[in-house]
Amino acid sequence: MPKPPTWLPWLGPLLAAGIGAAVGKYGLGGGFWTVLIAALIGGFLPILGNALWKWLERRRGQ
Where are the transmembrane segments (predicted)? Predict the structure, then answer.
């Protein structure tokens, strides 16, 4: 399994902004808290994906 890209965790702020804007404009009523929660979840997804990728890589190496 190849190593995760080094830029993957840095994708979080861009993804958070995109998801927050999309939810604010198109979905779920677009209230402040809805947008904030969606942006926070979307912003942490690349970080969690990177951690999961590294964990799986370490597990396969054993």
Answer: 31-53
Token pair listed for 54: 């590294």
How far is the C-alpha of 22 from the C-alpha of 12, rounded, in Å? 15
Looking at every residue in the chain, the average pLDDT score rounds to: 87
Every domain of the chain and the residues it spans: 31-61
CB atoms under 10 Å from CB of 30, counted, come to: 15
Question: Which residue's entry shows tokens 């604010």?
Answer: 24
**Quick one: tokens of 49?**
């994906």
Give the whole-angstrom CA distance, residue 30 versus residue 24.
4
Tokens coding 35: 């947008």
pLDDT above 90 covers a percentage of the chain that reads 35
